[in-house]
């Protein structure tokens, strides 16, 4: 078995390997706001030291609430370095559900983006355990702790010789994160995951989807979701990849961010991929001549695949892929629901590789994924190494 690791150690381990390489970035105006691996390690150390200085102890809970952004990732890893439970909160939940979760886990503090500060201020007085609210931006609210203030206080503590974060002892088999998921019941339930759970998934998923240091991930799915947290956040950081956070869920902005960041891997849900392929086909149909040519080329591609087992989508549709903004994408992975085979087949016809996998929050989350060189569009793939799968009450198809 490969060496597993503590999730709290990812910033330090990756900083030693990848140093000044960009870890996290997000477009701001015409340029990217970037954070290197060394900076990620430094910032999470400072914030962890500050949180511990506030009196937060191992086994207590500290939450994260906000949209995808570098500060969300930094907040998550900072909490992990304190030994407190990381509580990623679904920002799409209603106010009463967020209140219920924070009350249930007795959250001592929360990192929150400005978008949700008013919500937290509305419910804070009814949460007696919630003592500390750290804003992910330096906004002009009177009661929140500004992000850069917390960083600066952490810096001062470290310069004074305080290194409480180094004294945090946690084993591979102790829970470090609690993820609330409604599942099939509608009522949110907390799932506790350990570093062994998540690091195992990271190590063996890396092998199956062949992630390399030069890969660049585009982050679209919400970070509180286990699929994105493990496969789109922690896995790329472990491997020294660069993560670009999409500015929004608008298809045109996602495609622009992919093009500008030259992303190579996109994780998504079936609906996202359905919208992308519909957009490509819509652009083709705008021109009658182009539509006729493309249909002819598609017929050639399908014929070559069927008769000769040769995939011509890549060379035939090179110009179309470049125009779509997806020319740098080498791999798309769909999860969260069943992917229609015809969607994956459409992407393949245009020279893209879209495979699907299967997972559960309780399995941290990857159970299976299609091997890149032996994939089947009507399959959820093979279990990752070391995972056992049993089909309960199989039908006539197995």
TrEMBL record:
User: What SUPFAM superfamilies would the database entry show?
Assistant: Acetyl-CoA synthetase-like (SSF56801)
Single GO molecular function: long-chain fatty acid-CoA ligase activity
Q: What name does the UniProt record give this protein?
A: AMP-dependent synthetase/ligase domain-containing protein
Which segments constitute the AMP-dependent synthetase/ligase domain?
Answer: 14-396
Could you list the residue ranges forming a coiled coil in this record?
none
What lineage is on file?
A: Bacteria, Bacteria division WOR-3
Any one GO CC term of the record = membrane
Instruction: Give the species this sequence originates from.
Output: candidate division WOR-3 bacterium
